[in-house]
Amino acid sequence: MSIQLAFGITAGPGLRCWLPTSGDRATPKSATGRAGAHPPGSPVAVGPADAEPEVVREATRQLAVLVRSGPEAAGAGVDLGGGFTSARLAGAHGDRRDAVLAALKVLDGAHRLGDRTAVLVAMFGPLATKRVGAAAHTAVAEQRWAALRLASAASDLLGPEQLERVLELRAPDGIDPFPRGAASTLAGHLSRVLAGYPRPRRLTLIISLWDHVCALLVERQRQDRRAKSQTRIDRIDKLRERHRAHFDEPIMQQLSWAVGDRPTLAAAARWQPPQWWTARELGRLLHDAIAATALLRFARTMSDEGLAVAAEKHRAELVAADACLTEDERNAATRRPEGGYTHPARPGCYVHQLVQALSPDRTISAKTEAKVRTRVAMARNYGVVVLDAVAELLADLGDRPLHNCWDTCRPWHVSQLHGWRAAAGFSRSPSSWEQPPLTDAHADGPAQTLAQRIAAANPADPAALETPHDLLWFADLADALAPFYGNESATVRHGRSAPELDYATQAPGRPRADVALAAAGVAQLVMFGATPPPRCGGWTELAAGVSAAAVVAEASIGAFPIPPEVSAMDRQVLAGTELSVELGREPRQLAEWSGYMGNCIGESWYADEARKGQCVLMALRDPVGGRIVANLDIRRHTGGWHIHELRARFNDDVAPALEKHIKRWVDTIPAPVPSAPEPLLPVPPVRARGGSARRSAAGRLPAQLTGALTTAMERELASAPVTSARKAYAALARELGRPGQPADFEPEAAVIALKRLGPAELVDVLRAALNAGLGAAVLWRATRVRPLAAAVGSLDPGLREYDRLQTLTDGSPLPRTLRALVRRPEIAPAHAMDVVARAVRAAMGGLTGDDALARSVARRPSAELLCALAIATTCNRSTMDGAVQVVAARKTTVPGFPTSDLSDEHGPWQNALPAAAELGAPVELFWQRVAEHGLLIPAALLPKGGWATLWRRAHR
Contact at 8 Å (CB) between 440 and 462? Predict the structure, then answer.
């Protein structure tokens, strides 16, 4: 019997396949051609059917060695000796080029792969030349596997001469730009992105992709070196304690001068520092911040470019930072108490030592370099300690004004700040710094932001206009810390009294430092409708163009549904003012607003409300400078719209005059147009049979049918599955209680409570239950339990022929006789369970793509639920955002084990179509959608191992 092998090969008559041996198995196991007998793509040794056992054993041993790093190499047809070659069973991913590339990496050479021409054709296609072969041989000899795999992937797009260029690519030492991923997969992604460009441009873009990824990896290496050059972060508490103790010494001295050397607790509690004390402490911290910033910038350059470059580049900054401390202050900070931390309390001490050690007239010796490295290694810890101390002091300060001296003769100032700016400049643009300045008790203290003062005095010197109140020096410190945490700069969210600075959290959407991942990311956007720009000079420009096109496509649809009567107001001028209206259409826009406004409109709660259509969010912008003046949340109201929330920057109240204009404008927005009601189904006239028309409608059903149905219903309601399903519904109904006080229903009562909920309410309850830990798989099993449908199905065929009896099981409107039937006490509980089961599934459909459902499904996947969700995602265009392709367009074979096919009438996918319809999916469009974009699944469902891992876990 012939056995189907991978890549369209068949093991014909006279040949057999053996699986590699494991353990001490004496006789290798022979593979069978029966479907499903072995995992798809299993490696096998193919040889004569009558081969001697010893020859077979040696061949399978060689096969086991070959596939030690993975089964891919077996598909290359490697000579195993004794007339045997390696192969893989049907169902393997990729194509033969992946197998040949894997085998070349494992073998000493290509001599065991057979004919050299066939090997070249497998890797580079039929147009491969001898020169391409020679270049590939050189790449193999030099173990430049990434270039070899990239050239193989690009062979569908490039000519032979261009492939030679790709094969000559070299990555920097220690860099692998293509560490994982199949060349065949990359080939598909590159074709999707680059097919529309001429061949010369394709080569330029592919080489640019290589250079782009190598540059990212080099930068990642630099980031790792920066982190390793610093003292471990777990030692920071000792430095924090030392800094705090030294910082508190002056105020303790003031206390002792004021109330005596040994003040009582009550005396210390009554004592208040002078009103100018806070400004003095903040000035000391400003000096520490400048010193820490100088140390951090020096440490970054020293790690990236070496000590000599750092000394030359940052000498002026170090000298300016050194001027912040006097000799007495340095001596006090260096003086170590008994048992104290060995490093000085203030970073300025180490800045001073660096200035002395790196004097231009001194030679940098090995001893000097070691000394410098020891001090620079503390830069990160000093930066974190000082930044936290500044944040703590600003939080305590609040809105209280600063006093420069005892009589507040002038605004608070720190003279060293201007010297620091003259030497170091600005790391972020001062003309865009919108942080409100600290309040000063003196009338000449700054009232406007630095950006506003610069705009008003244009042209002007920003350094001359800056004051310490602006806290730009505070952001400089966070920016200097950011490169040691993998970020180029810190993120800033302006606040009333101080900005919120985040230097450690890496921004989402970091560039993908991997050739395969970078190409896959762009190809995914192209697949969803983004168009590559017609002209681009390199990969970075191409990726930016595709991303911009994707954003435009997303914006044209809008993540938030906005009614037409409100959408027409976008970009219009608010009546009675000069403010323009900007509608919030997607979460990224809200995050940008929040960063400037210092409010919580960027939080997920607002985005969730807007996504559900429960509110419309707006920003009102001043045309001068484009600054946001207020954020507005409006909601539907009887007869029109009303303002739900209106806030200025930092959640301040809007000026009364402006608020009056806004309310008047909202009142003019047209009222929502109600949707036309669905036509009522015609109800046939009631006919009296044999007497009174008042006779019970249920009584008109055949007594035999009613009795049989009641008996079957009682049997179903007493079954274990119904008991289990009711418990699941009781757990779901707990979310109907108040926050902190979950509802406690009896199982039967929980079903009735859920039955009374509207669709939107049930969606909210389901989301809350899933977030609270209720498993989606548990609920899915509960919704399979339909006691009324089961009872109807168990009736004799003759009784099931009663007119419209099927409406009891499919959710269709019930005729009058059946409505009366389901209200009977012995039948109503079963009918309620069927209704709730369908409603819960519809609610699950409403959560398709929601993180709550995705997390719960991923924790314990169910095969039927996975199939239903994938079908619903594929059929509904509204759920395609954030979806991942599992099966290519016009293909039906689904990857993963066990194998499945979309067209198999008895397979899991066809069986899941009714369940997907209950989720609300238009399943009649399934094959049309598969032809358009293949089978899709929400990306949030996929674990690290991808679809194959999720599918395998669903079949445990």
Answer: no
Question: Which residue stretches of 142-276 are H helix?
Answer: 145-154, 160-167, 183-194, 199-228, 236-259, 265-270
Q: Is 948 exposed, middle or buried (0-12, 13-18, 19+ CB in 10 A)?
A: middle
Specify the pLDDT at position 262: 81
Q: Quick one: 73 exposed, middle or buried, by C-beta within 10 A (0-12, 13-18, 19+)?
A: buried
Identify which has the larger pLDDT, 469 or 588: 469
Measured over the CA atoms of residue 937, residue 941, residue 945 and residue 947, the dihedral's sign is: negative
Cβ atoms 426, 472 nearer than 8 A? yes
Q: Are 905 and 857 in contact (CB under 8 A)?
A: no
Q: How far apart are CA 293 and CA 309, in angstroms?
A: 18
Q: What is the DSSP string of 668-696?
A: TSPPPPPPPPPPPPP-PPP---SS-TTS-
DSSP string over 698-716: GGGS-HHHHHHHHHHHHHH
Mean pLDDT of the chain: 86
Q: d(Cα 438, Cα 450) in Å, to the nearest integer? A: 11
Following DSSP, what letter does each residue of 48-79 receive, concatenated? ETT--HHHHHHHHHHHHHHTTT-GGGGGG--E
Q: Which residues contact 868 (CB under 8 A, 6 or more apart)?
A: 912, 915, 916, 918, 919, 921
Contact 205, 536 (CB under 8 A): yes
Task: Decide if 907 contacts 900 (C-beta within 8 A).
Answer: yes
Q: Is the pLDDT of residue 389 over 60?
A: yes
- CB-based contacts of 680, cutoff 8 Å, min separation 6: none
Give the three-class secondary structure for 507: coil
pLDDT band at 450 (very low <50, low <70, confident <90, very high): very high
Token pair, residue 820, equals 């009366």
User: In the 8-state DSSP scheme, what is residue 642?
Assistant: E
Contact 452, 460 (CB under 8 A): no
Q: Return the pLDDT at 694.
A: 44
Which single residue is written with the structure tokens 């179509």?
913
Which pLDDT tens digit goes with each residue over 604-642? 778 888 888 889 999 999 987 788 999 999 998 767 888
| Locus of tokens 């003062």 | 453
Q: Which amino acid appears at position 815 of this protein?
A: P
CA distance 934 to 686: 51
- The two tokens of residue 545 are 């163009």
Q: How far apart are CA 828 and CA 820, in angstroms?
A: 10
Residue 25 corresponds to which tokens in the numbers above? 């198995």
Q: Which residue has the higher pLDDT, 944 or 223?
A: 223
Q: How many CB atoms lie within 10 A of CB 784?
A: 12
Place of tokens 């168009």: 531
- Per-residue pLDDT tens for 64-90? 999 888 899 998 899 999 899 999 998
Cα 765 to chain centroid distance, Å, stands at 25
CA 505/CA 225 separation, integer angstroms: 19
Taking the alpha carbons of 113, 118, 120, 124 in that order, is the dihedral positive or negative? negative
Q: Are 67 and 20 in contact (CB under 8 A)?
A: yes
Q: Output DSSP code: residue 741.
A: B
Q: Who wins on pLDDT, 32 or 687?
A: 32
**Closest alpha carbon to 828 in 743, 755, 765, 761:** 755
Residue 375 pLDDT exceeds 50: yes
What is d(CA 40, CA 115) in angstroms, rounded to the nearest whole number? 27
Distance between CA 202 and CA 190 in Å, rounded?
A: 9
Cis peptide before 898 (omega within 30 of 0): yes
Antiparallel, parallel or unpaired: β 3-4 and 10-11: antiparallel
Query: In the structure encoding, which two tokens stand for residue 893, read together?
Result: 């074979």
pLDDT in tens, 235-275: 899 999 999 999 999 998 888 888 887 888 888 888 888 99
User: pLDDT value at position 801?
Assistant: 65
Say which amino acid occupies 794: S
